[in-house]
Design brief:
With about 210 residues, this protein is mainly alpha-helical. It is built from nine helices and two strands.
C-alpha cells in the first residue's frame, strides 16, 4: 500500500512538472533573472528587499524576473525602464493581480493601488484626479510653506532631532491635505501612530511570497 501511494505521488509530481515546463515553453521569454532552486524557484529576500533587488538590477539589467513555485514576478529596477513600459503598455498595466491577504482582508477592498481594472478603478481615479491634478496642487503651496517654516524652526531649536522633525513635517502636510487638520501635528499623535502601524503591516503583507 505504501509503495502504491509513493508511486502515485511520483507520477502526479512528474505530470505537474511536465505540465509547468510545457506551459513555460509556450509563453513569451521572460527577462533574465537569478537562478532558483529546482521546483521551488527563487527565495524572496525576507528583509531589506530593495537592497537585494538593486543588486539583481545591477547584475541582470533594469528588468528581471523571479520565480516562486508557479508564480512569476517581474521586477522593474530602473525609473526610466518603468516610464518606458508605462508609456508604451499603459493599457495593459491598469489591472492588478488579486491580493486576498492585503486587499480583501487587511484593506477591506478599499485600497486603490490594489484595485483591479474596471469601472470602480475609473471612478476612484477620477476622484483622486480632482484633488491631485497640477492646477489644484498649486493651491496646496501655502500649506506646504507654513509647515516648512515650522520645520526650519524645529531644526534650528533642536538640530539633533532633524530626522524626527522631517517626519513630523510630512505627517503634518498629509494630515492637512487629506483631513483638513489645522492644529499642530506631532509624530506621536494617535492618528499618526495608527497610520504608521497600518503602513508597516501593509508593507509586510504585500511582499512577494508573504502569503
Amino acid at each position: 500500500m505504501a509503495i502504491l501511494i509513493a508511486c502515485t505521488l511520483i507520477v502526479l509530481a512528474t505530470v505537474w512538472i511536465v505540465k509547468q515546463r510545457y506551459q513555460s515553453a509556450r509563453r513569451l521569454p521572460l527577462p533574465p533573472g537569478p537562478p532558483g532552486r529546482w521546483l521551488l524557484g527563487n527565495a524572496m529576500p525576507k528583509s531589506y528587499a530593495p537592497f537585494q533587488f538593486a543588486k539583481w538590477t545591477e547584475q541582470y539589467g533594469p528588468v528581471f524576473s523571479l520565480k516562486q513555485g508557479h508564480k512569476i514576478f517581474v521586477i522593474i529596477g530602473r525609473h526610466q525602464a518603468a516610464v518606458d513600459i508605462m508609456e508604451k503598455e499603459g493599457a495593459n498595466l491598469a489591472d492588478r493581480p488579486r491580493s486576498i491577504a492585503v486587499q480583501d482582508t487587511l484593506s477591506d477592498g478599499l485600497r486603490m493601488i490594489l484595485e483591479g481594472s474596471g469601472e470602480r478603478l475609473r471612478r476612484l481615479r477620477r476622484v483622486l484626479h480632482a484633488g491631485l491634478q497640477p492646477k489644484v496642487a498649486e493651491t496646496y503651496e501655502p500649506i506646504q510653506t507654513r509647515h516648512s517654516k515650522n520645520l526650519v524652526l524645529d531644526i534650528l531649536n533642536d538640530p539633533k532631532n532633524h530626522q524626527g522633525h522631517a517626519m513630523r513635517y510630512s505627517a503634518s502636510v498629509v494630515m492637512s491635505f487629506t483631513y483638513g487638520k489645522i492644529t499642530p501635528t506631532s509624530y506621536t499623535d494617535p492618528e499618526i501612530v495608527a497610520v504608521n502601524r497600518c503602513l508597516a503591516h501593509f508593507g509586510q503583507a504585500i511582499q512577494p511570497g508573504a502569503y
